[in-house]
From TrEMBL:
A GO BP entry: amino acid metabolic process
Molecular function, one GO term: catalytic activity
InterPro entries attached to this UniProt entry: Cys_Synth/Cystath_Beta-Synth, Ser/Thr_deHydtase_PyrdxlP-BS, TrpB-like_PALP, TrpB-like_PALP_sf
Alphabetic keyword roster: Pyridoxal phosphate
Keyword set includes Secreted: no
Residue span, Tryptophan synthase beta chain-like PALP domain: 17-316
Lineage, uppermost ranks: Eukaryota, Fungi, Dikarya, Ascomycota, Saccharomycotina
Domain of life: Eukaryota
Protein name listed in UniProt: Tryptophan synthase beta subunit-like PLP-dependent enzyme
Cofactor(s) the record lists: pyridoxal 5'-phosphate
């Protein structure tokens, strides 16, 4: 897989290009539902993902705290995108920060190679390790940082600067772009910072009227937790190609999730893949895995609202980070998705050619 390239920005240029991303209308979904469905194209950030927003805020916080100085080591647990953003921002300091990233061993290799190409050290941890276990990628990162001199655990799961970044930037951008007419919002959760920051802002601006739903993947218990009002995390153990999202516990960003979220829905991998392929075909928007999942959930939320309502979601990254699965006929066949892809859309499955 060709490694995505990033422009050679200095720190000021990079930071000035974070945010103010396009809000794009999904034309066919909007026609089909009679509601207006939009997505924030976060892959247009300089680091090509929504994580630039939070990482900028988080890195400013840890540097200002004096916990680590340039030339030291930044440690994070990541599903890929925050690791890329950290790798890009770390090298804009003098001297550069070193970056050590802990990931679940189920993470798509495309993302691992991308982070390594930025000079990051990537440590794989057992994906099956439960939250809080020392082998869990989050806990392993924390332990490493505690035991290493001039090193800090950035902790995107619990540092509320993550959530604040979206309350202060992404939420207001959506509000402005739709001129204050927002009826629904959907997003998936990895750290929970994106959903909680944007949803909190939209709830405040609409006096609680905006409907806010979590989008969840198979194998995650978040949908069950929300719909059972906190009584259960129960879910079927099932793998998913949608990296970086899904929960079996609440992060520090999500302590008030039951107060903010009005609902949740689980989307299958096949549904997400079909959404991605259709959007590429119709609007030439090459969106990533969680973006396809989020748009499926946005459609479901939209259908519960009056005709003409405006529903928004986020597309965290682009399709290039998922090429070895998303556009691989072999992988699609092996994982039971190929037969669901319409013949006219199979032209995009070119990875194995």
């Amino acid at each position: 897989m060709p490694i995505p390239q990033f422009p050679n920005y200095n720190r000021e240029q990079f930071l000035s290009r974070i945010g103010n991303t396009p809000l794009i209308k999904h034309e066919s979904l909007s026609r089909e539902t009679g509601r207006n469905i939009f997505f924030k194209a976060e892959y247009t950030n300089p680091g090509q993902s929504i994580k630039d927003r939070a990482v900028m805020k988080l890195l400013d916080d840890v540097v200002a705290s004096g916990a680590v100085s340039p030339g030291g080591t930044l440690v994070e647990s990541t599903g890929g995108n925050s690791g890329v953003s950290l790798g890009l921002l770390a090298r804009l300091y003098t001297p550069c920060f070193k970056v050590v990233l802990f990931v679940p061993d189920s993470l798509i290799q495309d993302k691992v190679e991308l982070m390594e190409s930025l000079g990051c050290t990537v440590v794989k941890c057992p994906a099956a390790a439960p939250p809080g276990h020392r082998d869990c990628f989050v806990e392993a990162a924390r332990i490493y940082a505690e035991e290493t001199p001039n090193c800090v655990f950035v902790d995107q799961m619990n540092n509320l600067k993550n959530r604040q970044a979206h309350y202060e930037t992404t939420g207001p951008e959506i509000w402005s772009q739709l001129e204050g007419r927002v009826d629904g919002f959907v997003a998936s959760a990895g750290t929970g910072g994106t959903f909680m920051g944007i949803a909190s802002y939209l709830k405040d601006m609409t006096k609680g009227k905006a409907q806010c739903w979590f989008a969840d993947k198979v194998g995650s218990g978040l949908c069950q937790f929300i719909t059972s009002k906190g009584q259960s995390w129960e879910c079927e153990a099932e793998p998913s190609f949608v990296d970086g999202i899904g929960k079996h516990n609440l992060t520090g960003q999500m302590s008030d999730a039951l107060k903010i979220a009005d609902g949740a829905v689980t989307i299958t991998d096949t549904e997400a893949i079909l959404m991605i392929y259709n959007l590429i075909n119709e609007q030439d928007c090459w969106i990533g895995a969680s973006g396809g999942l989020n748009l499926c959930a946005a459609k479901q939320l939209a259908l519960t609202l009056p005709e003409g309502s405006n529903v928004v979601t986020t597309v965290a990254d682009g399709a290039d980070k998922y090429e070895s699965k998303l556009f691989s006929r072999n992988w699609l066949v092996e994982n039971g998705h190929w037969d669901s892809i319409p013949v006219e859309l199979r032209k995009f499955a070119t990875y194995d050619l």
